[in-house]
């Protein structure tokens, strides 16, 4: 009898640990754009259990922490849809170049990347984003020099230790200088090696589960560094493995000219001819798109990673984001690599997206503060194929959220907290939760030593510069 009673007790599920956040403004970014001037969020384990107006109920079981968030705005965690973590080691170089000249200037240095460098650079990139409210990040890593080590593993380890949700877009290049491409020949892979290594990365690291911390996408670099056959076979590989596809597209006028000269068609038509349009695809930049291109993306559900600061830094142009959104194209925000966006912060891209798009044809009607916030949260989750799991504050979704402090000198006289977040000075992150785990407190990381990361990235950047200078 005693053994039976003990078994019955053991069978009773333990109530999840709950965290209650209350007395805060809330922007849920749900389908209705629900907001609360003063509300609460209840986390149960790694899920959001409740969101609503007023104070939280007093009787939830197993509450381990109550946070009085007076003076704060709570939003979904930011979702970064495009980055190149390795570029953290080459910030501040080639600052007055367009894309092609910038790539030619930096490829010889990037081609000397190795595993310790990739790990340090990923730590630096992730740390900067996480401190600024990013809870999910996508890294497009396409530099795989021969003998460099396990670069994908190094990136994944850095994200795991930081506690940030990661989509690793395992990139590839097989068109080196001798084949008319931009990267040095020793920095590219063969077609077969690229496909085999990409498949191995997916099989080893991709987690398809609802609360996955690591997912992998298939991501050949760009039309001017990848053969048509690699593009075609990468699309086939991704669909056979059930993962997403990512690449650069329509970034510059030079790319448009390159595609017409080499393929006899523009980038969007080229992508369609190689199987690269679909609701499992997202592309970075998409600056130079005509009405037909936008219609093709809308028809197929192809997503866009909008990178306003990088587009401006490289003088690429202004993407037609209002037209993409009006057509129903999924659009998220991207930091892009920190060799073309030295700050490496996504929350500043909310403001950048709004301001830069108002310089375009739609002027003041282009974007507003809430649209910008949606791009950086739900829009990004949709682009990465994770909108059912994250990107908005709704019961049942993952506990990925940020508390922004809004009662200091920087924001206290701006009545609307969403406007304050988007148009005001960068707001301090008082707390950031990923999968229910707090990773930031009062603007500092809890999971890694920021000063140690700063030292290691500086040392690896100097080592990379020394090695590159010897060539």
Automatic annotation (TrEMBL):
InterPro entries: Amidohydro-rel, Metal-dep_hydrolase_composite, Metal_Hydrolase, MTA/SAH_deaminase. Coiled coil: none annotated. Its EC number is 3.5.4.32. It holds the Pfam family Amidohydro_1. It comes from the Bacteria. Keywords: Hydrolase. One of its GO terms (molecular function) is 8-oxoguanine deaminase activity. Residues 73-437 form the Amidohydrolase-related domain. NCBIfam families: PRK08203.1 (NF006055). This is 8-oxoguanine deaminase. It comes from Streptomyces salinarius.
């Amino acid at each position: 009898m005693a053994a039976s009673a003990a078994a019955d007790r053991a069978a009773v599920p333990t109530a999840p640990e709950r965290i209650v956040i209350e007395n805060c403004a809330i922007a849920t970014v749900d389908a209705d754009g629900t907001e609360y001037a003063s509300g609460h969020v209840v986390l149960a384990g790694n899920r959001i259990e409740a969101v609503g107006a007023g104070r939280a109920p007093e009787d939830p079981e197993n509450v381990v922490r109550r946070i009085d968030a007076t003076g704060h705005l709570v939003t979904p965690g930011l979702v970064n849809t495009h980055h190149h973590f390795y570029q953290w080691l080459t910030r501040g170089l080639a600052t007055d170049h367009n894309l092609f000249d910038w790539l030619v200037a930096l490829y010889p240095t990037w081609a000397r990347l190795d595993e310790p460098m990739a790990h340090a650079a990923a730590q630096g990139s992730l740390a900067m984003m996480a401190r600024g409210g990013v809870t999910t990040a996508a890294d497009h890593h396409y530099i795989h020099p021969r003998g460099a080590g396990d670069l994908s593993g190094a990136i994944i380890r850095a994200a795991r230790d930081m506690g940030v949700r990661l989509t690793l877009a395992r990139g590839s290049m097989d068109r080196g200088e001798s084949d008319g491409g931009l990267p040095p020949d020793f920095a590219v892979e063969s077609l077969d090696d690229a496909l085999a290594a990409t498949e191995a990365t997916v099989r080893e690291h991709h987690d398809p589960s609802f609360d996955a911390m690591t997912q992998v996408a298939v991501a050949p670099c760009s039309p001017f560094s990848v053969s048509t056959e690699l593009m075609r076979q990468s699309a086939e590989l991704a669909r056979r493995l059930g993962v997403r596809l990512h690449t650069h597209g329509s970034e510059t006028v030079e790319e448009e000219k390159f595609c017409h000269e080499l393929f006899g068609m523009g980038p969007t038509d080229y992508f369609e001819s190689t199987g690269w349009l679909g609701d499992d695809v997202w592309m970075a930049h998409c600056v130079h798109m005509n009405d037909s291109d936008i219609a093709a993306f809308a028809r197929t559900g192809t997503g866009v990673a909008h990178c306003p600061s990088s587009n401006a830094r490289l003088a690429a142009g202004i993407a037609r984001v209002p037209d993409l959104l009006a057509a129903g194209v999924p659009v998220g925000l991207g930091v892009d690599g920190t060799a073309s966006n030295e700050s490496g912060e996504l929350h500043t891209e909310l403001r950048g997206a709004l301001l830069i798009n108002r310089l375009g044809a739609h002027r003041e009607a282009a974007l507003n503060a809430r649209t910008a916030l949606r791009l950086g949260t739900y829009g990004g989750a949709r682009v990465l194929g994770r909108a059912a799991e994250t990107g908005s504050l709704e019961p049942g979704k993952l506990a990925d959220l940020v508390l922004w402090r809004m009662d200091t000198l920087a924001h206290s006289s701006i009545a609307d907290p969403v406007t304050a977040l988007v148009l005001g000075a960068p707001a301090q992150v008082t707390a950031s939760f990923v999968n229910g785990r707090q990773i930031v407190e009062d603007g500092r990381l809890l999971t890694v030593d920021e000063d140690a990361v700063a030292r290691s990235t500086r040392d690896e950047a100097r080592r990379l510069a020394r090695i590159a200078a010897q060539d």
